[in-house]
Design goal:
Elements lengths: L20 E2 L6 E2 L21 E13 L2 H7 L2 H21 L3 E6 L2 E6 L8 H27 L5 E13 L12 H12 L5 E3 L3
Parallel strand pairs: 6-7
Antiparallel strand pairs: 1-2, 3-5, 3-6, 4-5
Helix pairs in contact: 2-3
Amino acid sequence: CRAEVEPGDRFCRSCGAALTTGCRVCGAALRPGSDFCAECGTPVRDGTTRPIEHRLVTALYVDLVGSTALAEQLDPENLAAVVGALHEAVRLEVGRREGSVGAFIGDGVLGVFGLPAAHEDDPERALRAAQAILRRFDAVNRDIGRRLNVALAARIGVNTGDLLAPTAGDLDLGTLAADVLNVAARLQEVASPGQAVVSER
């Protein structure tokens, strides 16, 4: 997305793309293009390659509205409870419809339908998950929001498109980079509180 990033950032603040991956031995952050880990010297590539293929997926990006203002109003424990409730809503509703959840980026969450298993109705599954997440978070607002005297809302972007993804091994959504994911994050930015904005495709 060409947004500026700060030293030490692990994810892009604009589109959510992963800027670093972790060493498979010591877990230290690896910068793009590194051949060896700067902490332990382990080669970044282990000599094996994982097959990749084009996949049609539907990405769902969920974000907490007004998180910066909430962080200023709430103590860390209450803020963690709010963000945790959002993450839990996404994990449950996306998982219930056989999507993959990952890339918990601060208060934002990325879900993908079509990886690792593809379904004929992945876009519909994503839309149903989006509706259920918004309903669930409305309940969080009535419960936690009322108790903390804050207004809580989520907004969602949903987009379908192609990406390259590994077909074997563990799936780490945080390592995927594709326009389909970036557009979902951008659509979320234009959504109103409590709304999902969906691309035409």
